[in-house]
Amino acid sequence: MKNILITGGAGFIGSNLAVKLAQKGLNITVFDNFSKQIHGEDCEKSDLFLKIKNKVKIINASIENKNELKFAIENNDAIIHLAAETGTGQSMYQIEHYSNVNIQGTANLFDILANEKHGIKKIIIASSRAIYGEGKYFCKLHGNVYPKPRIEEDMEKGDFSVKCPICKAQVTELPTSEDSAIHPTSFYGLTKQVQEQMVMLMGKNLSIPCVSLRYQNVYGPGQSLANPYTGILSIFSTRIKNGNDINIFEDGLESRDFIYIDDVVSATETALFNENANDTVFNVGTGIAVNVLTIANLLKEKYNSNININVSGNYRLGDIRTNFADTKKIEKLLGFSPKIQLSEGLDYFTKWVNTQFVQPDLYQKSIDEMKHKGLFK
After folding, report:
1. How many whole angstroms separate alpha carbon 262 and alpha carbon 185?
2. Partners of 80 in the beta sheet?
3. pTM listed for this prediction
4. Which DSSP symbol is given to 137?
5. Which of 15, 86, 132, 371 is 20–30 Å from 22 (CA)?
6. What are the angstrom distances between the C-alpha of 284 and each of 119, 215, 244, 323, 369?
7. What is the DSSP string of 66-106?
8. Interhelix angle for 187-205 vs 105-115, to 10°?
9. Among candidates 31, 191, 9, 227, which has minimal Cα distance to 95?
10. CA of residue 287 relative to chain centroid, distance
């Protein structure tokens, strides 16, 4: 495979992947709508655009534009489908938009592949840990369980723990494996579930090998510092750089699996060229859960800041308590394991942030939007 189409290829993950593949002599076409939420008012001045400029072929169009997408697919051998809206909170009130981009956009892709001549030999879909919802837990009475979304009445009382869906006892988090229950708690997670299922189903029916990569929380240099809807490390960094205090939701012990961008790019490249990946689903993470309060304090320390970190007890409907990847499958079948530890990755990330212009802090605006919709408590 020599000619690769990357939808959403001007985004954080896509731009890094596009550059790496281009450096290896592949012909890369980037298909992206250059959303203002990510690239700002003038996309040609954004760092992500400049990263790929003159290195790849660029098509500025929306995944919703079927004619442009058909043109983009021509003469390519493989598709890495990254195009998606990614804000968990925002998805809970921009239902139609997230559906149009994430679900209908993927439907457009497969409608073309089903009805037009093409040379596509493989497809990679960027899925998400969000499809698991709360993920896998252990109950002393019932063994491995997959809890339902937490009850708002409990969270109102300050009880943010996850309960066994059978006996309602507190449970212990486990690494979430690929065979775990799929039950997203946000509309974003639901759209990613549909995306993944659509790709794996239609790929099989069209005899196109497909791979689904369920990314955990990706971070690193180049992540948008202006987007207040996704990327906790970039959101916190922008607040700190503006001298604004950080409001930690719940009790601060909610946790995520943070994986560095270079490792995500490496995993994606491996899946593209390794036939053992074909028609298979993989977690892409570190297998380590780190709580949000720890992340906030690490960033405060690295930026040598005196802002306050407040654990507020606020919560957002659709958020999960914890999720971290079981990575045994990708290690066994593809020989992939992440190379960058969190301490090292945060050093790279914060040093890069220190070289950037301070972006306006729009985070409170995003919270106000959720309050107005009754989704932030």
Report:
1. 28
2. 6, 124
3. 0.96
4. E
5. 86
6. 28, 5, 32, 12, 31
7. HHHHHHHHTT-SEEEE------HHHHTT-HHHHIIIIIIHH
8. 10
9. 191
10. 16
Per-residue pLDDT of the chain (377 residues; tens, 9 = 90+): 899 999 999 999 999 999 999 999 999 999 999 998 888 888 788 888 889 999 999 999 999 999 999 999 999 999 999 999 999 999 999 999 999 999 999 999 999 999 999 999 999 999 999 999 999 999 999 999 999 999 999 999 999 999 999 999 999 999 999 999 999 999 999 999 999 999 999 999 999 999 999 999 999 999 999 999 989 999 999 999 999 999 999 999 999 999 999 999 999 999 999 999 999 999 999 999 999 999 999 999 999 999 999 999 999 988 999 999 999 999 999 999 999 999 999 999 999 999 999 999 999 999 999 899 899 99
- Encoded tokens for 222: 């180049």
| Domains detected in the chain | 3-136+175-315+324-372 (3.40.50.720), 137-174 (no CATH)
* Unique residue bearing structure tokens 């690239």: 39
